[in-house]
Amino acid sequence: MSTRAGIVVTGTEVLTGRVTDLNGPWLADRLLELGVELAHITICGDRPADIASALKFHADEGVDLILTSGGLGPTADDMTVAVVAEFCGRELVLDADLEARIAAILKRMMRRFPDADFDAVMAANRKQAMIPLGAEVLNPVGTAPGVVVEGTPTVVVLPGPPRELQPMWSTALDTEGVRRAIAGRTEYRQETVRMYGLPESGLAETLRLAEKKIDGFDRLEITTCLRRGELEIVTRYEPADAETYREVVALLNEQHGTDVYSTDGSTVDDQVAGLLAGRTIATAESCTAGLVAARLTDRPGSSAYVMGGAVVYSNEAKSELLGVDPALIAAHGAVSEPVAEAMAAGALRRFGVDTAVAITGIAGPGGGSAEKPVGTVCFTVARADGATLTRTVLLPGERADIRERSTTVAMHLLRKLLQTP
Amino acid sequence: MSTRAGIVVTGTEVLTGRVTDLNGPWLADRLLELGVELAHITICGDRPADIASALKFHADEGVDLILTSGGLGPTADDMTVAVVAEFCGRELVLDADLEARIAAILKRMMRRFPDADFDAVMAANRKQAMIPLGAEVLNPVGTAPGVVVEGTPTVVVLPGPPRELQPMWSTALDTEGVRRAIAGRTEYRQETVRMYGLPESGLAETLRLAEKKIDGFDRLEITTCLRRGELEIVTRYEPADAETYREVVALLNEQHGTDVYSTDGSTVDDQVAGLLAGRTIATAESCTAGLVAARLTDRPGSSAYVMGGAVVYSNEAKSELLGVDPALIAAHGAVSEPVAEAMAAGALRRFGVDTAVAITGIAGPGGGSAEKPVGTVCFTVARADGATLTRTVLLPGERADIRERSTTVAMHLLRKLLQTP
C-alpha cells in the first residue's frame, strides 16, 4: 500500500507567470523524501470555481492528502481557506485567539511603516483568522495562518510566500491530520548522478544497455534531465533494489568515466567550495559580468575564500583594473585566449589570491562575427603556482543561456584545476 | 462566447522541482495576450496514466485547446506523443519525411561530439518521428517535432526546452487546428502598475476604497503580487472598461503618488536603462558580489553604458581596488554608510564613469550583531557631478532574499538619482 498526494498551487500571478512558483516543486521534493507518491501539481488563478475543481480533480485521482499553497493574504482575491472549507463540508468560523495573535504580529511589522493606519490594516487582516470548523491551525510565520482539515482526503492549506510555507510545512507534519494521512507511505531512496560533457542521447544509449544487461532495472524509477548545462540522473528505488542501483552506477562509470563527476549528490558548486577550503579566489569577468562571483558567494561562509572580483565589461576596465595590455586586446580581440589568460593573471596579482577564473565572451545578440560567432566564450583558470587551464567553447542559446552556461563551464574548469596536484 | 485552454506540463524533473518549469507560465502569458481564458496548468511526471488523466481533467473542464510541454525526447521516459495519440483516438505512425529531417539535424549537431556513434543516436531519435495519424507537424527547433491534433479539444504538443517551445508555439498559431480552436476568443487588455515602498495591506485598503467609489470596478480582473521586493498590480479588462481602469490608476496615484513608479508596463530595469543612455556606470559590490552588475548587463546593448564593476568581498579588496581607507573601515565597520560612500567614490574614480552604485551589507546567516543585524545593507549611488544618495535599509528574509532584494533597492536608488536634475 502506498500514500498518494496532490498539490494545488493557487494565485493568478503564478498562473500567468508573473511570479515563478517555487512551492509546488519544493513540496514535491518533501513528499518524495517522505515516500509519498505525487501524481500531479495543478496551478490555477484566484477563482473559487477553479480552486474547487482542482481540489475535486485530486480527490478523484484518489489521493490521501492535498496540499494547497497561496491565497491566504488580506486582499479580497485571496480565498483558498473559504473554498477548502466548502470542499471539506466545514463551516468557516472566526478564531478569536488566532485573531489576537495576528494582531500582535501586525503591530510588530507596522513599525517599519510608521505612516500606515493600524486599524485599517487589522480590518484587512481579520479575514485571515477565519478557519474551517474543527481544523488544526498552523501558526503564521508571516501574518497568514495555515490549516489542516482532516478527511478523505486530508487537506493542508499553506501560504504562498516560500519563506512562510517552508517552516509551516514542518509544523503541518507534526499534526495528527497529516500524520494519519501519510501513515501508509513506502520507504524510498533517491540518489543522483551528475555528468558533464555528454549529450543526452549518449546517456539514452547507455540506459538502454542497462535495461538489457541489468536484472531488476525496470524497478528503478530513473529520470534524466539537462540542467544548467549538465546531465542529471535521478533514481528512486525501494531499499531492496539498492544492489541494482549500484550496478547502474557502475555501468555509467564504465561507459562515461570522465564525464561522471558526482555520484554522492554533491553539485559542482559543493565540490568547488570544498576544493577552495584553505585557498583564496578572485574572478575576472567580462560577458558574465558578476554571475560567477555571485554564484561562488551564493553559499554562506564563502567570504572565507572569495576575496572579490573584477567585472571588466569595457576594454579600458580590462586594462585599468587587471593590467591587460591594450596591445594584446588590439592584436587578438577582447574575446581571445591570450586576453582570458591576461585577465586571470591580473586577478591573481591584483587580489593577491592563489586561484583565479577569467571569462571573456560574446553573449549576443550583437557582437558576433563569422570567426567568433555569438556564444564564443574563452575561459582561463589559473593558480598562483603556475597551473593553468584555458579553453574556448561555443555555447548554444540566447544571451541569458550563454551567460548562465558560462558560469557552469567556469565551475567545471575550476574543479579540474583544483583537483590537479 | 469565450475560448478556454488548459496547459499540461509533463516531466518528472519538473514535477519534482529539479528543473523549474518556465513553459506553463510563458504559455499562460501568450494565451492571455490572445484573449484565451486559462483555467489550469497541471504538472505531472513521465507516467502515461498521469498524463492521460491530466488531459482528461482539462477536457472535462470544457476547454477548447490543450497545450502540452515536454516528453518529446529520445529517451524511453518521453512518451507524450503516444499518450496524446491515444487520448485523441489516433493511430501512431512513422512520418518518413520527418525522420529524414531529424537525421539531417542530428548530423549537424553531432559535429560537436566527434566520438559519438551516429547510427546509435539516430536509432534513439527515430521515435521522435512517430506522430498521430493526420496530425499537423510542427518542425523541430531542436530535434523534437511538435504536433497539432485537431479535435474537441484540439491538442498542441510542444517540446520541453523553452528555447524550442517558444518559436514552435508561433508556428502552432499558424496551423489550421489552432486557428479554428481559438476562433471564439474575447479581446482583452492587460496593463500593469508597479509600486515600490508600500506594504501589500496598504494597497488592499486602496482597492477596497476603489470598489466602493468606482463604478464597474468589479468588471476589472485585478491581481496584486509582491515580486522582487516590489508590488505589481496587473489588471485585465475588456476594451469597453478602459475608462474604469483609468479611474483606478488615478486613485492609486492619488493615494500613493510617490510609490507608484510605473503605469506603462516598464520595469525599474527598463527605466534605469533609459536613464543611463548617454552615461556610463560602474558598480562596487560587497554582499551582492556581482548581482547588480549582472542585472544591469542582463539586457542586450548594456555594454554601451556599463563599464564594469568591482566585487570587493574582503576589506583588502575594498582598499586595493576602490581606494577605501582602511582606517575608515576600522572606524565604522565594512557595513556602514561612510564605507558605502567611499566605495561609490572609488568606483567613479577607478572606472572613470559618471555614475556609480555601491552596496555593502550583511547577507547572513552569520556576521550579524545587535547593532547591525543580518539584513542590514548600506547603499550609495553617486554621480560624478556630486549628486549622491545614501541609504541604510533592513531587509527581511534569508541570504538569497537579502542579496536579491538588495539589487532591487539599488535599482530604485539609481532611478531616483538619475531622475534628479
Describe the structure.
The structure is a homodimer of 421-residue chains. Chain A has 421 residues and is α/β, with parallel strands linked by helices. Chain A folds into three domains: 4-181, MoaB/Mog-like domain (Molybdenum Cofactor Biosythetic Enzyme, Chain A, 3-Layer(aba) Sandwich); 189-266, Alpha-Beta Plaits (2-Layer Sandwich); 269-419, CinA-like (Maf protein, Alpha-Beta Complex). Chain A has 16 helices and 17 strands. Chain A has helices spanning 12-15, 23-34, 48-60, 80-87, 96-110, 118-126, 162-173, 176-181, 200-213, 242-256, 268-275, 291-296, 315-322, 326-332, 337-351, 399-419, and strands at 4-10, 37-44, 65-69, 92-94, 130-132, 136-138, 146-149, 154-158, 189-195, 221-227, 230-237, 260-262, 281-285, 306-312, 355-361, 376-383, 388-394. Chain A has a six-stranded mixed beta sheet, with helices on both faces. A five-stranded mixed beta sheet of chain A has the order 14-13-15-16-17, sandwiched between helices. Chain A has a four-stranded antiparallel beta sheet with strand order 10-11-9-12, covered by helices on one side. In chain A, a hairpin with a 2-residue loop joins strand 10 (221-227) and strand 11. In chain A, helix 3 (48-60) packs across helix 4 (80-87). The longest helix of chain A is centred in the C-terminal third of the chain and has 21 residues, at 399-419. The first copy, chain A, is globular, with a radius of gyration of 27 Å. At the A-B interface, helix 1, helix 2, strand 2, helix 3 and helix 6 of A face helix 1, helix 2, strand 2, helix 3 and helix 6 of B.
